[in-house]
Amino acid sequence: MTGNTKPMKILFAASEAYPLIKTGGLGDVIYSLPRTLHQMGLDVRVILPAYRDILEFKPELKIAGWLEVQGAGHSHPVRILESHDERLGVPVLLADVADLFDRPGNPYTHPDGYDWPDNAERFTVFSRAVAQLATGTPDIGWRPDIVHTHDWQTGLIPAFLYHLKNAPPSIFTIHNLSYAGIFSHIEYTALGLPDEWWTSEGLEFHGNFSMLKAGLLYADHVNTVSPTYAKEILSSEFSNGFEGVLKSIRHKLSGLLNGIDQDIWNPKTDPDLVSNYSEKWQTFKGKQENKAALLKEMGIKPTAKKLQAPLLGLVSRLVEQKGIDLILDIIPELLKTTDANLVILGAGQDYFERVLTMLAKQHPQRIAFHSGYSESLAHRIEAGADLFLMPSRFEPCGLNQLYSLRYGTPPVVHKTGGLVDTVVDASEENIRNKTATGFVFDEPTPEALLTCVLRAIKIYNDKPTWRQIIHTGMRQDFSWTHSASEYAALYNNLLNTTKNG
Ligand code: ADP
Predict the structure, then answer these.
(1) Which domains does the chain possess?
(2) What is the pTM of this model?
């Protein structure tokens, strides 16, 4: 709180937010963190570009004001829309520029999968609009005390704010350092970004410029979404070329673990499941009904044998980061030496989609692949699978392993980033101590993944141990309560220490 009575006003600026638009974990966080802060008494609003998908969601909208923002070679009128629709959790503002955002496809790519060619302009215009709004243009009767920005699409906001008078302080959260928002000098010039910022200590990045770098340099505080990833990104292996910059901003860098929305991801009440269940053994049997229904839905006959065999689940963007190639590499051996079956939901790189489609065709009663994006199927896989695969090469936090823990589906994870901070390996000692929640392997290699999956399958067949691991996992608290308090403390601290605080 500021002063004694007034709640702190926080503006979240991001490129996606569930339930309006979501391509990954960022969308979940921009729904659940503002909501928790709001429940704690903060006055939080979220601003997003007015994509077509959002307008088609039909939130109740009213016009809050207009402004004019410079784009590439010409300026754009920006309409600020405001929604207090209850489905959104907190009030949402939209920066409406039809030329840039009213299109099919996802926030970043054309329906055919390639990046929108004007992404530099789209997110520069959005960032300029947010910075102006945060400094009172247009006056919408609400001005933030802090602007909390997320990932490269909003990285220019801290830079614009830093150079504006009477601007609130800003935070930049890195949800994934491997997307750096890199664009050319030609685009930089066309967008009218200041010449003085084009230095190697500024926005320039190996002959191009990086919007992520702008956020890192100019935000008053930078954080990432798990303590382990915050440490990892200081090494060349994980820094994506930003090691030097990150080391230079170490004094303002921290790691705060993401939480999950425990209402939306709750096996006790989840409306997408055929049978609700909890960790209590009497209702936990409902999980088996979800397994049978999932197998059937995915085209695998739920025979007694199939129900007994371990079912491995995967819900993921199909990109190298997620270790999809490692899974593809071990499938032949898994099929040969175990009775495990696989259900996979994902969209992403063409190559992965093609190979998975082919494998599912070759082994229709062992592997099922649903290509595309389906929020409700994601819930059913979390509930119906026995083991969840998440062999990410790196993982800033990861939400899917948290969902799988909550759904009694122990995750198999690589020892990296947020996966280290959230999953306790079923080593003999951890099983003895009753702290084990999943299966962790050290090296991102097919051999290590296979050994780990085989170890998990062995324990799957030892039912008392298996139940104990599930039970421990389901009882973990991954709610936002703790981390949201840490964010609130961070906002407070910034208000007290920055120039305008
Ligand atoms: P990332 O943000 O890197 O994609 P996370 O594990 O943090 O990974 O979050 C992924 C989120 O996106 C989860 O909510 C997951 O269920 C969802 N997701 C990913 N791919 C799909 C898909 N194909 N269909 C439905 N949900 C998906």
Answers:
(1) 9-259+481-500 (3.40.50.2000), 281-478 (3.40.50.2000)
(2) 0.95
